[in-house]
Amino acid sequence: MPQEEESSSSSWCNSNINEEEMSSSGVKNLVRGFKSLGSSSNKTDAGGGDEMISDRELAHRKAEEAAARRYQAAEWLRQMNGGGCSLPQHPSEEEFRLALRNGLILCNVLNKVNPGAVHKVVESPVMAVQSTEGPAQSAIQYFENMRNFLVAVKKMELLTFEASDLEKGGSSSKVVDCILCLKGYYEWKLAGGIGVWRYGGLVKITSFPKESPASLMGSESADESFDESESSQFEQLLEFLHFSNEVPVEESTTANVLAFLFDHFGLGLLQAYLRDSNGIDDFPLNATVIDTLLSKVVKDFSALLVSQGTQLGLFLKKIVKGDIGYMSKEEFVEAISQYLSHRKNLVSSDFSKFCTCRGQKQFLGHTRTSSESSYLSETTDLHQKELHELRLHYKLTRQEVVQMQADWREEISQLVLHIKRLEVASSTYHTVLEENRELYNQVQDLKGSIRVYCRVRPFLSGQTNVQSTVDYIGENGNLMIVHPHKPGKDARKVFNFNKVFATSCTQEQIYDDTQPLIRSVLDGYNVCIFAYGQTGSGKTYTMLNTEETWGVNYRALRDLFQITKKRADVIKYQVGVQMIEIYNEQVRDLLVCDGSNRRYPFKSQVLYVSVVWKPFNTYDQEFTFHNFLKH
Length: 631
Ligand SMILES: Nc1ncnc2c1ncn2[C@@H]1O[C@H](COP(=O)(O)OP(=O)(O)OP(=O)(O)O)[C@@H](O)[C@H]1O
Prior knowledge:
Layout: H1 3-16, H2 19-42, H3 55-80, H4 93-100, H5 104-113, H6 134-155, H7 172-190, E1 196-199, E2 202-205, H8 220-228, H9 233-245, H10 254-276, H11 287-321, H12 329-354, E3 356-357, E4 360-361, H13 370-447, E5 453-455, E6 470-473, E7 478-482, E8 492-496, E9 499-501, H14 507-512, H15 515-522, E10 527-531, H16 539-543, H17 552-566, E11 580-583, E12 586-589, E13 621-625
Parallel strand pairs: 5-9
Antiparallel strand pairs: 1-2, 3-4, 6-7, 7-8, 10-13, 11-12
């Protein structure tokens, strides 16, 4: 780049560039600032556009910053002199200059930092009494101090300044830089002097392999080295950045670890700014630009430190507390190691995303090997494939759920329809049942509410050579009896019943005519069935008998329960049984088993269905149902 252009650009930077603009929106703003400054130099418009901060504000900020740095330098000099120096705590620029001008403080401090650096320090200049040369001589002696100091500082490859900078109109900021640089060097030495040390964001490598690091320190000498060096400053900077990445943390002490961390990340950030800055190549990379960029790096890094420090503080407090109480120092260190390892993996994957610039992947501080890249690529592909399958699965499941919901809705609507039909059918059933009941019982009434049946018992085994009195049994219920000892027509008598059962009739045939009455009981009618006849005529046989040839009682109860069961969904029946004996005008409960009194009045009462049986009465046997059904 032509020298004229550079000096021209430098003059813009020195007069107009400001850090606020740099830090507000990064390097792009820096470039935009340069461009707008470039255009403002050719115009008479001193405003420089809306985005520029006014010169007055800029000057004010610079003055504040310069004062803060001056106070810092003065404080350190006072400390190193044991407080006994003539430097005020907050000196003005003039006071600062005047206090240091004789070089006495500077030489003494330098000798403390690096003993023997200044061999001869002029403590109190010899004043020739009554000599006109007195002031001039003392000035020369003071100048000797200053010269010795500057030579020693230059030998130590620290930031330096010109003796004229301590004169009126000189650059006191360079003096401040030099003192703070000396301070940094002193502190680095106190910390062990291993590895790297830095001053104010500018870095010095103590074992820099090729050239003097002074060329990288943003001083005037840096600009000079730019002029003299064959390679550009940018190339030097990149070379230096590369070197700084290779300084191992393990070799450093705690202080150096901190310094290294700042250098590593701060310079990494600077590197990113430089690479990311569109159009910055159009401008010379001089000391001012580096200063500005580094200032932004420091500012960003400080902001990050504050934010991360807060979060890390919370996190560490949480870790040290643990789940079951405070952990030991070893456990704490182990937990931090695990956390760092975890973060390292996360950061390495984040970097690949962060560093994708203009369609190209650029890695900061670490270039992935091809195997790492292919592994990452495969992992990403695998995850994407799994994600795709998950989405498909989710889609299918969702469809299934929707289909199931539709099916359920359909089933529910069918059920509702079915229930409505059942409701109708149920109400119809009750109506039909009622009609049926009435009709049925009307038939029973028509048959007769009192029916009398006659059963002829066969001869018992052993009853031989006897003659039956039954002469004829008619189909319509007639029975003709013959009296063997009466003559003529008086010998025959005819009886009429509802039905006459011959000796050959089975128990089942007997019950057929009784069965309809059992249903009537469950329809709400009272029914009484009883047997009547002389001793041995077969009453017990007909009504009870054994399991093989059940009588009316058993069959009636069987039907009673069967019909009850059939109607269980519609009507709930409760059935009770009682058996009593009436003999010789005495009534007894035959179901009492606990030995209590069997005679009437009974403890238990017939509730719903009662069976009354009089087995020992010579002329009657009864089977009665009392219906208590409620609808
Ligand atoms: N239809 C029949 N077929 C066969 N045997 C019968 C028949 N009826 C009654 N018997 C028999 O006749 C005998 C007398 O019958 P049963 O005891 O039933 O008479 P009963 O009228 O109850 O007498 P009682 O009044 O004295 O108790 C019994 O041995 C019985 O088995």
